[in-house]
Amino acid sequence: MLAGKAALYERLREAISSAQTIYDAEKKRVVSAATAEKLAAKPVLVSELDAPSMPEAKDPRKPVMWINMLVAIVAAMVMSLVYAFLADHFDHSLKSIDSAERYLGVPVLASVPKINGKVIQGG
Prior knowledge:
Elements: H1 2-41, H2 65-89, H3 97-104
């Protein structure tokens, strides 16, 4: 009794599987037909604008030097401004005695003065 029901169950499963396969194939065919119908309703017109041609060896294309130089100068200026901003923004060096005392939390005992970049020689 149970073996007969198991066999019936397997046959029904196979029937459902084959029916699902047939359904999916038909659905795909209907969708592609509907897409083809929509495309046929609005045809795409292709027209040739210029005839294709090979470049001439006697007249090669050359870069326009002044445009390249102008672009290079503008790019260099922008990059130098970005570098200057970033260098100043991320510079964490101590510039004065007050900032050294504030950040380090200890008093400054001595400092070496800078006198016009010249070395002072004793005489």
